[in-house]
Amino acid sequence: MTETIYLGDLGVWGMLVGVAATTIAAFVLFGCLLLHTGGGNTFMDLALRISGRSPGGAAKVATVASGLFGMVSGSAVANVATTGNFTIPMMKRLNYPRPFAAGVEAVASTGGQIAPPILGAAAFIMAEILGESYLRIALAALLPAILFYLGVFVTIHLVAKRRQLQVVPDDELPSWSEVMRPERIIPILAALGGLFYGVLSGRSIQMSAFYGILMTVLTFVPLR
């Protein structure tokens, strides 16, 4: 037992813990930094503008926002805790059934596990076990992620039509000029650009996350 726990690959100092302490930790830091430097509010406002006025708008906002958050967080729990604090009360306020509101947020947030570029923790373990590049695994997840969120979106639309679910009121929608302000968009694009540069140039996945963090800081501080 001691040998398995402390000396083998399956124990405390094994591969899984090593991936969590290096690769996953770097991406958790990247996602948190991006979301808490304004990316979270920007993603939410984008979701409101994109889908707020269509049937079942509040549920579609939850789907779009959870998809955007999932791309940079890779954690279903963190996704629900972040976007759900806004989307679930909004759906309840518009008289959506409570189980429906909770189910939409939970399902949409789960999709972040297969949403590139960050995916969930399992993707890093897959890359380590299979010996494949993280880029190849992320590209393989792109089509399933699109189909997943398309399926959720269409299902919500059909349920909203049948149950006559309300749209989001105009006074709760931000203007496009507010959403697309350079100081809100540039840090997000720069962070994702730094991440993609690292991955496409063949750098390690930890170094790619560092590039994303660096670009977030370099663009966020001057614009504020």
From TrEMBL:
Chief location category: membrane
Record bears the keyword Transferase: no
Entry membrane topology: Multi-pass membrane protein
Bilayer-spanning residue ranges: 12-36, 57-80, 100-125, 137-160, 184-200
One family name in Pfam for this protein: DctM
Keyword GTP-binding: no
Subcellular location(s) per record: Cell inner membrane
Domain named TRAP C4-dicarboxylate transport system permease DctM subunit: residues: 19-217
Keywords: Cell inner membrane, Cell membrane, Membrane, Transmembrane, Transmembrane helix, Transport
Main function: Part of the tripartite ATP-independent periplasmic (TRAP) transport system.
PANTHER family: BLL3936 PROTEIN
Protein name as annotated: TRAP C4-dicarboxylate transport system permease DctM subunit domain-containing protein
Organism: Vreelandella olivaria
